[in-house]
Design goal:
Blueprint lengths: L11 H73 L1 H8 L6 H13 L7 E7 L4 E4 L5 E2 L8 H9 L4 E7 L4 E11 L6 E10 L1 H11 L4 E6 L4 E3 L3 H5 L4 H4 L7 H6 L6 E6 L2 E8 L4 E8 L8 H19 L2 H50 L6 H31 L8 E4 H15 L5 E7 L6 E4 L1 H17 L4 E11 L4 E10 L33 H11 L3 E7 L3 E12 L8 H5 L2 E2 L4 E5 L3 H12 L4 E5 L2 H10 L4 E5 L7 H9 L3 H4 L3 E5 L6 H7 L4 E4 L4 H11 L6 E2 L2 H9 L6 H4 L29 H7 L4 H27 L3 H18 L2 H16 L2 H30 L1
Parallel strand pairs: 13-15, 20-21, 20-22, 22-23, 23-24
Antiparallel strand pairs: 1-2, 1-6, 2-3, 4-5, 5-6, 7-8, 7-11, 9-10, 10-11, 12-14, 14-18, 15-16, 16-18, 17-18, 19-25
Helix pairs in contact: 1-9, 10-11, 11-14, 12-13, 13-14, 16-25, 17-18, 25-26, 25-28, 26-27, 27-28
Length: about 900
């Protein structure tokens, strides 16, 4: 018998068992990873999502709090101003006092606080007769004992400054916020009556909900927990409590809100999502925003990547072994980390560039204002100039970083449009010419005159490319020359390649450094170029811009002797015809049978508008007030009305509203607002106020032309020849002059400019940048002389108006006067005085009487000196 040990045969079943065990092990391990990883991912993802929601809710509520507080505080200030007005106090104390004039003036002052807004009502009531007046409605007597009139005794006897109440009008479906302010006698010991404002906040709340309806649910409520603002107005009407309405898990919101200090926002988790609460002290309200959890929260790239990773891991476990799987997972994590790092870098650069650029613009703006102060000590002036120079350099670096981050993140956009190539070259050469004006560098320009006049491309980016190359050339050239040469290489009838060559006699580039030129954050030859400011991004950005436009960039250099950078850009040829300049481009037609009305309280501004409209041969009438304009439009058939926005007495908005109310014909009359404050939101405001458009002062003729072409009837527009265009713009005689002699003349000719022969001589007036003034009139000296003549005649009157407004402590009227002078001074080239008027206007808007009292005398002194200089010039011109 064989006693040797027997070896167990490796059977097929055994081999299959081993495979099965491996598969089972892989499956179990995969399931463990799936459960553990899925659970960890879910909780981590939910926490990240909720943190992001919390931050988003905080930003949302803070933005809405600021907007609503600013909105309400402005109206509170108006209500308190009414309550403290001596004239209104005397009227409220005894509405039936003898003498109708003071009462009528007080009523007019009360109504003026509506400010032309249909969403604001003004009301007042005297405790003597208890008659309730609101806007233009008939009064009625209030019974303070009725429960609906609880606000009467509360305001009159228990309120020191103001209080609020809110009501819902089911017929109009509007929510109105009432600001009630008691009126006291002179020593504030006895209440005399009540004044206040009713503000329709329906539109404000509706916009809030429209803006955030997809993000969150927002509700406003008062200290008692009653809902005061919601998308469902029935909640406001029924005075539902916020704690009863919200998810019970998010209860006790009102209690949490009452513990908040001003400016605080509280965020906390609810089972259903994220909740944020903030206080709105201006109203005594609170706001709560709820962002519920949703399955869609997890529909994002991170979740998709997680699912894909699970599937990949499953395949690896089935077809490979654990070591390969570990290797691949490690590699995958490394790649994800690199991508995340790159993305975070780009996002960080973009965010920081934006955040830094905002305060830098403020620093540069304040430095510029400080430089314009005439009494600034020399040492302080030197310091401010250093701040401006350093700030400009830093801003340039920030802009480079921002451009780089856009390029690096793939967000760079090329926006092609029609542009005039020679105008672009003129801008660029002017900028570089200023840089080299006081240096030993000769700046040479040679541009091929065969380049098509109008091309299609991204003008701003092409300008950036040329300025980058020329700026580098100037920076690295101590003496010698910098040259810009532009040639063309036609491709076909629709495309031309523009070849831009920038050469210099500067330091040059070593052969071993040429390959580094276009890399990010690289500065070459650091020893020799020590002290040269920059980020090393300019050429990298230039290369990316050229590449994005389908072009190419090349460099040749000899170290110590200079460099040549060559850019070739394909540009489409526009079908647009070339014209001589912007003014001629605008004045493509005349309208001798058209009639326009210009309304402005500053005669100089009227003269400017008349001068520009004369280019189009339009008959012009003028008015100095809104009240006069209403009478004028009823007496004449105007094709167009230009209405100044801010005027003493009746402003442009009120005048436009009264014109519209005259009848159907006047409702269709085109009325264009003239404004010196063309900021964001003005267009919408003017449209709501019945205007057909607006144009900012000083008036740009291209924008004026667009307005005229749109609103002057086509049958009254006569297309001009090139000779007529040149004559209209420059004011020089032409062959067509005799044909135009019989056209209707406007009032503009009554004050003809003195000494017509003088218009051909150089104009020099102390205190005026006459070149800028003439440029605004497109070189037409006759018009410019007429305008400064009008300015001289009306200037002393404006000084008297400003002093009278200050003596009466009427900051609103004061602000209106300096506002009008701001654009008038800019139009004639008095840039420093115009800037001073702007600063005084802003101080008037902010109620900064200390600044006004300190700087107005200096402003008036400068204005008086300018009037004297203009007077001397005009007197000499008449001899």
């Amino acid at each position: 018998m064989d006693s040797r040990p027997q070896t167990e045969p490796v059977t097929e079943d055994r081999r299959h068992g081993s495979v099965a065990e491996f598969v089972a092990f892989s499956v179990v391990l995969f399931l463990i990873i799936l459960v553990v990883g899925g659970t960890a991912f879910f909780f981590s993802m939910r926490q990240i999502i909720r943190d992001n929601k919390g931050n988003e809710l905080m930003r949302m509520l803070e933005n809405e709090r600021i907007k609503l507080s600013a909105f309400v505080n402005n109206e509170i200030a108006s209500a308190l101003k009414m309550a403290r007005s001596p004239l209104i106090r005397r009227y409220i104390e005894d509405p039936d006092a003898p003498g109708l004039a003071p009462a009528a003036v007080a009523v007019e002052e009360l109504k003026a606080y509506r400010g032309g807004s249909r969403s604001v009502s003004v009301f007042w009531i005297s405790d003597k007769d208890k008659k309730f007046y609101i806007d233009d409605n008939a009064p009625y007597v209030v019974d303070p004992e009725l429960s609906d009139n609880y606000w009467y005794n509360m305001t009159l006897y228990r309120t020191k400054e103001y209080n609020f109440n809110i009501n819902y009008n089911p017929d109009l479906n509007t929510i109105k916020l009432w600001i009630n302010a008691p009126v006291f006698n002179a020593d504030r010991t006895k209440p005399l009556g009540i004044v206040g404002l009713g503000i329709d906040i329906t539109e404000f709340i509706r916009k809030v909900y429209e803006q955030h309806t997809d993000d969150a649910e927002i509700y406003y409520f008062n200290a008692d927990g009653e809902i005061t603002g919601a998308s469902d107005v029935l909640l406001v009407m029924d005075k539902r409590r916020i704690d009863d309405f919200l998810d019970p898990a998010c209860a006790d919101v009102a209690s949490k809100a009452r513990k908040l200090k001003e400016g605080e926002t509280l965020t906390y988790d609810c089972p259903s999502g994220k909740t944020a609460v903030c206080a709105i002290p201006a109203l005594g309200w609170y706001a709560v925003a709820v962002m519920p959890d949703s399955v869609s929260d997890y529909k994002n790239p991170v979740a998709a990547v997680f699912v894909v990773m699970l599937l990949v891991i499953a395949m690896i476990f089935v077809v490979s072994n654990i070591f390969i799987a570990r290797f691949l997972r490690s590699l995958r994590r490394t790649m994800a980390s690199l991508e995340t790092s790159s993305r975070y870098k780009s996002e960080f650069l973009a965010m920081m560039s934006h955040e830094i650029r905002t305060p830098m613009n403020a620093i540069l703006g304040m430095a510029e204002l400080a430089i314009r102060e005439k009494d600034l000590p020399p040492r302080a002036m030197e310091q401010v100039l250093t701040i401006r120079k350093s700030g400009s350099n830093l801003l340039s670096i920030i802009n480079d970083i921002l451009d780089f981050s856009k390029i690096d993140s793939g967000k760079l956009e090329i926006v092609p449009a029609d542009y005039r190539f020679m105008s672009l070259i003129k801008d660029v050469t002017s900028i570089i010419g200023i840089k080299v004006a006081d240096s030993p560098i000769e700046f040479r320009v040679d541009v091929d005159d065969g380049i098509p006049p109008v091309l299609i491309g991204d003008e701003a980016r092409i300008r950036q490319i040329i300025l980058n190359l020329l700026g580098n050339a100037v920076k690295y050239t101590a003496k010698g020359f910098v040259a810009l040469t532009v040639t063309r290489r036609p491709v076909d009838d629709e495309v031309v390649n523009i070849i831009i060559e920038v050469s210099d006699s500067g330091r040059g580039i070593r052969p071993e450094d040429i390959g580094k030129l276009f890399k990010d954050f690289v500065q070459i030859d650091l020893v020799k170029n020590k002290g040269i400011e920059g980020t090393g991004l300019g050429l990298a950005i230039t290369r990316s811009l050229v590449k994005a436009m389908g072009g190419a960039i090349d460099v040749r250099s000899e170290y110590g002797k200079g460099s040549v950078f060559t850019v070739e850009l394909p540009q489409e040829i526009s079908k647009q015809e070339c014209v001589a300049d912007d003014a001629a481009a605008a004045a493509l037609f005349k309208a001798p049978t058209a009639r326009a009305l210009v309304v402005d309280d500053v005669p100089t501004n009227l003269a400017v508008a008349q001068g520009l409209l004369s280019i189009y041969d339009i008959s012009v009438d003028t008015c100095l007030s809104g009240a006069e304009s209403i009478e004028a439009v009823t007496m004449h058939n105007y094709d167009l009305v230009f209405m100044d926005h801010m005027m003493p007495g009746m402003d442009g908005i009120e005048a436009a509203a009264q014109i519209r109310a005259l009848g159907r014909r006047y409702a269709a009359l085109p009325i264009i607002a003239l404004t010196a404050n063309a900021v964001s939101g003005m267009k919408e405001m003017f449209e709501r106020s019945g205007f057909n458009g607006y144009i900012s002062k000083p008036i740009e003729i291209s924008k004026l032309s667009a307005i005229l072409e749109k609103w002057i009837p086509k049958e009254k527009q006569i297309i001009q020849t090139q000779e007529e265009i040149a004559a209209a713009v420059t004011g020089n005689p032409s062959a067509t002059e005799d044909k135009q002699a019989a056209r209707p003349e406007s009032g503009a000719a009554e004050n003809a400019a003195p000494a017509a022969g003088k218009t051909q001589a150089e104009i020099k007036i102390e205190g005026l940048d006459t070149a800028k003034g003439l440029e605004a009139m497109h070189g037409n000296k006759k018009i410019y002389l007429h305008i400064i003549g009008v300015f001289h005649k009306s200037g002393q009157g404006k000084i008297n108006d400003i002093n009278a407004a200050l003596d009466a402590s009427d900051l609103r009227l004061y602000t209106t006067h300096v506002h009008g002078l701001k654009s008038a001074l800019a139009s004639i080239g008095a840039t420093e005085l115009s800037a001073a008027a702007l600063a005084l206007e802003m101080a008037g808007r902010e109620g900064n009487r200390a600044y006004i009292d300190e700087h107005t005398p200096h402003f008036i002194s400068g204005l008086s000196s300018l009037l004297a200089s203009v007077g001397e010039f005009l007197a000499a011109a008449e001899k």
